[in-house]
Design goal:
It is globular and about 85 Å long. It has 4 domains: 3-92, Gyrase A, domain 2, CATH 3.30.1360; 120-166 and 254-364, HUPs (Rossmann fold), CATH 3.40.50; 170-248, no CATH class; 425-542, Isoleucyl-tRNA Synthetase, Domain 1 (Orthogonal Bundle), CATH 1.10.730.10. It is 50% helix and 13% strand. The protein is built from 20 helices and 14 strands. It has helices spanning 3-20, 49-52, 54-57, 61-69, 94-107, 136-154, 170-186, 201-214, 223-248, 265-276, 311-324, 339-351, 388-395, 397-405, 417-421, 428-448, 465-475, 477-486, 490-510, 518-542, and strands at 45-47, 77-83, 87-92, 120-124, 158-165, 255-258, 280-283, 286-289, 300-303, 329-335, 359-364, 367-371, 374-376, 413-416. A 5-stranded parallel beta sheet has the order 6-5-4-10-11, with helices on both faces. Strands 1-3-2 form a 3-stranded antiparallel beta sheet. A 3-stranded antiparallel beta sheet has the order 7-8-9. Strand 10 (329-335), helix 12 (339-351) and strand 11 form a beta-alpha-beta unit. The two termini are 36 Å apart. Belongs to the class-I aminoacyl-tRNA synthetase family. Monomer. Keywords: Aminoacyl-tRNA synthetase, ATP-binding, Cytoplasm, Ligase, Nucleotide-binding, Protein biosynthesis.
Amino acid sequence: MNIQELVIGEVKKAVKKNIDDGIFPQADIPEIKLEVPPQKEYGDFATNFAMQSARVFHMAPKRIAEELIKQIGPEYLAKTEIAGPGFINFYLKPDIIYKELADIIEKKDKYGDLSDNGIKIQVEYVSANPTGPLHVGHGRGAAFGSALVNLLRAAGYQVESEYYINDAGNQIDNLAASVNARYLELLGKASELPENGYHGHDIIETAQRIIDKSGSEYLALPDIERIILFKEVALKEKLEVLKEDLDSFNVHFDVWFSERTLHPEAVKSACNVLLKNKAMYEKDGAKWLRSTDYGDDKDRVVIRDNGVPTYLAADIAYHKDKYERGFDRLINIWGADHHGYVCRVKAAMDALGFDSSKLEVLLLQMVSLYRNGELVKMSKRTGQSVTLAELIEEVGTDAARYFFIMRSLDSQLDFDLDLAKSESNENPVYYIQYAYARICSIFRQTAEAGIVQENNVRLDLLTDETETALIKKIMAYPDEIQLAARDYAPHRIANFLHDFAADFHSFYNKCRIIGVDAPLAQSRLALCGAAKNIIHHALDILGVSSPEKM
């Protein structure tokens, strides 16, 4: 248990004692949060709990704070003070800081990994139709989703990541028909793209590869047979390219789930349950979900009047399968344009007898690319949407991932291509990686100077304000992991890491290692080692590399 948790525990005990003594009324206690004050004179930690609970306890914040600090006085606190309208500031004894740092150093690169909490979570993300290359919007979802998986695992959750392959339905039929049209066109035959076909240059490339491999031999096949053949060829190729793009973006899935496996049996089984539960009815030859019974604005068609399932039918069967796999929580990351779809899927889960609150849908807002201050709408290469592969080629995986993650998922993102490529302190990912490279450089230089790291060092020699600020930031890391995981907010780790790099650079600029007394040099080396582990651990969560030289 870290210091923050201990302090929060003390506040909880004080609240309970005041309730038991009748000073505070019985009530649902708001969440107790700690923050690190921006100025040293306001203590090591502070809480605004007294102000947050004023309405609950029907008391003035200052009175609540006064009653709380009467009950708070553990041995690791030097003092507790009330500030302003009701803030409670906590001042740690110096020795507890050094004891905590010693424990952190002992944990090495495992510091930041929280205990297994036994909660099983599935995270499904990207799940783009395999009909063309991934674009930058998919890239944001891929970066966020993979970082969320890493974050939840660090926070002690048992996480399985999944990609849902939309390999059935009209979009795949249109893909095959589009490849067929381009195939015929390249061989000089009359052809026309289907109305809802795909016009990307990648379709022409797929058709050309078929010709390069097999020439015109497929012209002899009837159209239907040729299109069926091209469907499998194109789907396999698109999936391979998609997996290569994701792999180069440090995105890896535990499960690739094929929509085809749902048709027809899983869809039929889900519909039978809905019919049995009277949650589905027939009208005008179609089968409808009574989604209005669960808060939707209208009922939805599940099976069309021609007997063909809608996309919703497959999604119902798919989510039924997810629930039956025994996860405690299901997280879907969808584009913001799917916001209206959330209610109907949740309605179907409730209608099937599942708890729809276990399904959480996170909506991904749009990405806008800017170069030289101007909006980039199209790829220079193809005249179409900028692909993820093109973005990686221009700014690199590390910058692309960090820039996608550093903003909250529910905010629109303006991606500055020039900033992402710059090697300056204004580029946040460069600034962070430079801090890591600096630490690696320190260890190389001290080794060359004959300074050998020792195990037992005097951590209480770390008294400079930049040293204590860095120690406190290190101490705050597990709490940041916990809170970021709770809120599904990997951007908190990105922001924490940027602040942490700033604290390290301040320490580096003020505190020498070579040329100072040996005990102090050893203490500062130990602090550098702990800082190095923090940066590496957090960059791993973000899926960003930790370069030893820059």
